[in-house]
Amino acid sequence: MIRKLTLFFALLGAFPAPVLAQDEMTRAAFELYLERFSAGDERYAELYDPDVVFEHAPQFGVLRGREAILEFYRGIREQLEETVVASEVVIDNEQGVMAAELTTQLLATRDGVEMPSGTLDAGDMIISRGTVYYRINNGRITHIRGGIQGAERIAGGQ
């Protein structure tokens, strides 16, 4: 019996649950954040400070607080699948800043999705590239802003 319990607890320790929040931002934590975000796993927001500010595109305004960001993306996910991948990430915990070059793929899951660039139908896709700047403190994101350097629209079936 003791042998089985020892094995059980050893296995538990061998597979710790990934943790996002820590004292410093790391590339691994940021990659897990993007992985969870892209999968629609709301645990991505664990990396946000409760009072995070997200300066989204002008048409969407400024989102204030973790819950406001979660609510915004719940609405997005009703119409789009969003996948975000980082190519370059620079983190300076001492200065409290991080910058990431990101590629975002938006795939319409239904017809009639209104976007700033026009209406998407199911299967249509927008791929954009841009740089996002983050303020960070104690391993959490406190401020987000960015810009798109380019975007491509692809009609469904292509």
UniProtKB/TrEMBL annotation:
Provide the SnoaL-like domain boundaries.
32-143
Membrane-crossing ranges are: none
Swiss-Prot/TrEMBL keywords: Signal
What are the boundaries of the signal sequence? 1-21
Please name the SUPFAM superfamilies in this protein's record.
Answer: NTF2-like
Q: Does the keyword Acyltransferase apply?
A: no
Q: Name one Pfam family in it.
A: SnoaL_2
The protein's name in its UniProt record: SnoaL-like domain-containing protein
